[in-house]
Amino acid sequence: MMYGEEVVERILFTENDIKEVCAKLGKQIYEDYKERNPILICTLKGSFMFFAELVKNIGADFSVEYIKASSYIGAHTSGEVKLSGFFTNFEVKNRDILIVEDIVDTGLTIQKLTKFLLEKGATSVEVVTMLNKKVRRIVDVTPKYVGFEIPDLFVIGYGLDYNEKYRNIPFIGIMNPKFIEK
Ligand code: IMP
After folding, report:
1. Tens digit of pLDDT for each residue in 84-96?
2. Contacting residues for 145 by C-beta, under 8 A, at least 6 apart
3. Does 100 reside within a domain?
4. Most buried pick, 27, 48, 64, 115, via CB within 10 A?
């Protein structure tokens, strides 16, 4: 049995689907940023796999940085976003920033992060996200680049976790609700 199979109700996007979407997004980002030497920020922990695949498709100069943002406990948002770690200590003044997210859900994380970076003097801040759960938005934020739109379902795999598990599933699957603690 494949790892994680017992908790995945249905596969939403295969590894190949994700690779294709990264190629498409990488091309758009290349066109928009090729002369801007942006900073690409990987939001830990969920974005690491998408980030690695995406950057292979951007054939231009950029720096990479990492920020840890957390808000979820199990399958529910706490509504409070924490930015943490020494990772936030890098110079963003007069730089174009592209935040790389695994999933935009309520929008609180990117709202907080965008504000934080603009206050530190960034020239521009945009977001690329692998998944967009638009129906769950509670604040007015719009990622510029979106891999896939998804409905209000809890998904795991390709970096996304449930209580720190299942990040290593090589595709994105809907988690069977019977395994989710209420
Ligand atoms: P937001 O601040 O509500 O937009 O939430 C963003 C973060 O919540 C993401 O970076 C994920 O870590 C987590 N998250 C939201 N939805 C899911 C999901 O369906 N599966 C796993 N993590 C999720």
Report:
1. 755 667 889 999 9
2. 25, 28, 29, 126, 127, 128, 129
3. yes
4. 48
